[in-house]
## 1
Amino acid sequence: MYRAAQLQVPVETVRHAESLGYHSVWTAEAYGSDALSPLAYLAALTDRIKLGTAVVQMAARPPATLAMQAMTIDALAGGNRLIVGIGVSGPQIVEGWYGQPWGKPHQRLRDYVTILRKVLERKEPVAHDGPEIQLPYTGPGALGQGKALKSIMHPVAPIPIWLAAGGPKNTALAGEICDGFLPMGVGREGVPQSLRSKADFEVFSGATVTITDDVKSVLDAMRPLTAMYVGGMGSESHNYHRDAMARRGFPEAADRIGELWRAGRKADAEAAVPDEYLEQTALVGPVSRIRRRWEAGIAPPGVTGIIVSADQPEALNLMADLAGTREQVG
């Protein structure tokens, strides 16, 4: 878990998912364990399941460094297995943890992904003169001896680049320069039509799956983390989790949770998280209830895949049955 005090890689769960025909396993990072190292570890312990980041933080490493790590891990995995999902994070982490200016994240994303793709494609030495990132660097402190370089290592297979985004500008950017989209707070109207019309463009959302007879207890256990993200992962002016809740149809609840959290009333903030919001991305209950909700459609229109979060082997089994992946595995 990327937000745990101790690193735990659920190897047997991942192997079980691979045996069931799951498409991919995904890692994340905040300000503790990183997202890439566990994938290198899993590459040695699995055979075919794809290895994705949802997400690596843009401020954590220069684009050339991310390209080097991506090529290395994909080579270790045998090729055609790595998916690089990139996200901006927020100003608290960008400035407070990585010591970088918030700047203009939309333009920085464009520069970043453009450089990353140039490195991976190896068509020519990498040079880029963008408003946020320049290669070679010629700014303050430069000796003026920078040289455009081409990666020594050749990728063993193409490495797709996905973008995590919520707002309209970065969502459009994902469709323009990336191979996939990890939506943050997509509304029930679904993925924009401009993305749905793109050939071979993937859009993955997420869902927590828990088989239980006590739906209320499971939802109650989800409230503290939800309230912390919506209320505390950002400032009053910049909180992308609050914005995501608003986009998903709960603007008043998002504002109220933020107010309560900032006032130090954490228990009240947790209580203010609506059940309906939690169940938009959670399949909870007996198997019959989960099956009914799956058949009714949990994913917004335009989503091509769901990243399942499940601690129970039987929940992974159920989702493989519902998605029909078991029949695809020899």
## 2
Amino acid sequence: MSRLRRRSFDSLIQLTPMIDVMTVLLAVFMVTTPMMTNGINLDLPSAGHSALNGTDHAIQISVDAAGNYYLNEMKLSADDVVKKAVAMRGENPQLTIMINGDRYADYGAVMVMMGKLKDSGFQRVGLRTKTEK
């Protein structure tokens, strides 16, 4: 006579190792993300005792003293910066843009970027400054 055996499989998922891995990943990303959003070195202008720093989730566009445009640390033309910002807006419609203009940057170069961004439909565009000492 043939005997039928039924095996019982333990189909429970162990969540403890997965939670441990996710906690480590969260800690790594929380530490490294602020370091990645610095952009290029600029001498920002002072604007009183309350600086406009922007948020960590804002796109950082920089204008250096020579009038070059940067998206994070990537040097681009003004039109290319706007095209990439519009592409990023497709993922997040409430996107904020902070323009970091060097103290010695041409005022016109900063305003050209701000105008192009406004013409492209961005409503949340700000200028980043530092506090007076």
